Amino acid sequence: MEQILIVEDDISLNQGLCRALKSENRQIISCMNLKSTREQLLCGSVSLVLLDINLPDGNGLDFLSELKITDPLCPVILLTANDTDMDIVTGLEQGADDYITKPFSLSVLRARVNTQLRKQATSVHTALFQMDGFVFDFDQMQFRVNGTAIELSKTEQKLLRLLVENHGKPMSRSVLIDRIWTDGAEYVDENALSVTVKRLRDKLGAHDYIQTVYGIGYIWEKKHG
Description:
14 strands; alpha/beta; 225 residues; 4-stranded antiparallel sheet
């Protein structure tokens, strides 16, 4: 189900946007400030963000830069009364996917939202994984943590892909060894897996995500508490 996050402090406009964009297969999340927006995004990623620039507890452009680091593929449409060419250029250069100035037509807004959602649907492929600032693109072999590129060896990439594709499910040591070292070697020292796990955790800073399941193996799951 699509999730649209609306960040707008004008109550009547916020409610109007919620009504205009609501549909059967779409969930609308409404926020009035950046504090509640950040709290909402901790619960999980969204399909699209409609973001006002002038908010009571901060600047939407600053938040846009922050969001594009943690979730670079999430489309963001800026909503604002700032309608000069410089305002629009600044918003787009900081990562906005579209820019709508107030006042605006709700039918035009709906069309632009639908366009961004279609673009996102066609650009997301199965080899892409995103979570809490981790962006792993296995097709392009590009791995980023909070916007910073990380170099991984082929073995580390294989291990990471197995873990995130089975997100939330424990993977046994024997299965991981069989599927990572597929070069026909008759014997692989089990210590090789432990070493690879440690290197991967350290490189990604993923000690709270790549967890040891004692007596079984490993799991990609965020540690709670």
